[in-house]
Amino acid sequence: MATLRTREDGGSAASPLLETGAGSRRRQRRWTPLVPAGAATRRNFGMALLGVVVFLWVSSNFLTHAIFADDSYSKPYFLTYMNTSIFSLYLVPSGVRWYLRRRRGGQEEAEEDTTKPAEDKLDNKETMRLSLEFCLIWFFANYFNSYCLKFTSVASATILSSTSSMFTLIIGSLLRTERFTATKLLSVLVSLLGIVLISTTDLSPSGSSSSDAPVERTPIQVLTGDAMALLSALAYSTYITLLKVRAGNESRVDMQLFFGFVGLFNLVFLWPGLWILHATGVERFEMPPEGRVWAILAVNASITLTSDYCWAYAMLLTTPLIVTVGLSLTIPLALMGQMVILGTVAGVRYWLGAACVFVAFWFLNREEERTG
């Protein structure tokens, strides 16, 4: 009631980005997205979100490949910087709601004060601090994943990046976000086996020519690419597991505000990287050369804005390991898209690998239901 008395005495409303305490918790609770109650229902809802993420990430990969393959705009740092900075748009709704609350005065404040406070919910300063802790890990996990493709094959990058499931199981077991069981270990190993089978499948487009062969890389370049893929997998596993530890479940953190601050911090702190890479010749800063590239960048950024938000909620509703292994489903889906779009033909090894990934994900989900 202290907050209500202050407003009645003529006090002004504080910015929603700096509020703390019970008043902030009451306001944030009002805007947290509704998630079904019940462990089984929440897990199923998380699975549905994961399916959306898989589809969106595969679509994003095809769009990125469209400008990377012909070297029309191969700028992994700029692409990652733009895709992560755009998350600052999530702060706009918070600003609008704060403005509307000020216009309405104390009426809405009185209505919210009659509801039960959300226990253990992060206030705005805590959410801002959480975003600051994770913005760099998140950025470089995405950057390394994009940049490694300049030095190593897609197959090697896919295999090495997918070791994140093993890293997630190890880190999650150490931090007690995952219960280590033999079934989970076996599921991860089967998933990795499926990834290896899929990634080493010979998918040859009908009527393709030898001019499509990949550019030769030196051993040092290949080693650099493989190392970046491993760093991406490790950063991703660390990020997703630590976020689960710090956030707990979806009721404790406003993910819209969290990603908004992540985007803002990346926008403010990481722009010098563009100048450094340009000055050193690693990545020359150039604006997109044509409208087609601009359109692909805009659509790709919109996909990232939606998919990563769904991904975070899927992780909080399930577990980091389920989400990590589940995202391996992007591999068979991507290759199916490649068969449709490019007219490639898959052999028995591809379908066997896809079956391994699906079976591993199914067993892992069942094990999670059993162990709780």
Q: Would you mind describing this structure in some detail?
A:
With 372 residues, the protein is an all-alpha fold. The chain has helices at 2-8, 21-31, 39-68, 76-85, 91-104, 106-113, 124-147, 154-161, 164-174, 182-199, 219-247, 255-269, 272-280, 291-317, 320-326, 330-342, 348-371, and strands at 204-205, 344-345. The protein has one domain (39-85, 124-203, 214-371). The chain contains 17 helices and two strands. A two-stranded antiparallel sheet has the order 1-2.
Shape: globular
Instruction: Give the oligomer, counting copies of the same chain as homo and different chains as hetero.
Output: single chain
Give the C-alpha Rg. Answer: 23 Å
- Spatial strand sequence of the major β-sheet: 1-2
- How many strands, what sense, and barrel or not for the largest sheet? 2 strands, antiparallel
Kindly, what is the distance between the CA atoms of the first and last residues, rounded to a whole number of angstroms? Answer: 39 Å
- Strand tally is 2
Range of strand content: under 5%
Helix content: over 70%
Summarize model confidence as the mean pLDDT.
Answer: 75
**Unreliable stretches covering 5 or more consecutive residues:** 1-14, 18-32, 110-117, 204-214
Task: Tell me the number of structural domains.
Answer: 1
Q: What is the ordering of alpha helices and beta strands?
A: HHHHHHHHHHEHHHHHHEH
Question: With helices defined by DSSP (H or I, 4 residues minimum), what is the helix count?
Answer: 17
Structural class: mainly alpha
